[in-house]
Amino acid sequence: MGLFNKKEDKDQKEIASYQENTKDYNNLAFDIEFNEEHVTHFKPLSYDEIKPIVDCLLKFKNVTVNLNEISKEDKLRLIDFLTGAMYALEGNYKKIDKGIYYFWIG
């Protein structure tokens, strides 16, 4: 009985100390609010990764997408989908470099 209680007490104190020392850092990420100027960069590996790209586009109004690591077929599907989204959302896009595109809602 006494053997385990001492270890548990020590562990609880260490955990409490760690939580107290890192409290400010843990809350920092939640206190930061992004403004509409925030740009999010994506490097999808397949067409299945389209949803987070469009979600960020809706939230932050602009994204940069690097399509250099994706298959040609998925690349065409992704570009078609995103250009369709730009049309529906009255946005626009620009090719920045080979396989890199910037999309924005304006």
From TrEMBL:
GO biological process, any: division septum assembly
Which Gene3D superfamilies did the record assign? Answer: SepF-like protein
Q: Which UniProt keywords apply?
A: Cell cycle, Cell division, Septation
> InterPro entries this protein is in?
Cell_div_SepF, Cell_div_SepF/SepF-rel, SepF-like_sf
Q: Which Pfam families match?
A: SepF
Q: What does this protein do?
A: Cell division protein that is part of the divisome complex and is recruited early to the Z-ring. Probably stimulates Z-ring formation, perhaps through the cross-linking of FtsZ protofilaments. Its function overlaps with FtsA.
In Swiss-Prot or TrEMBL terms, this protein is called Cell division inhibitor SepF
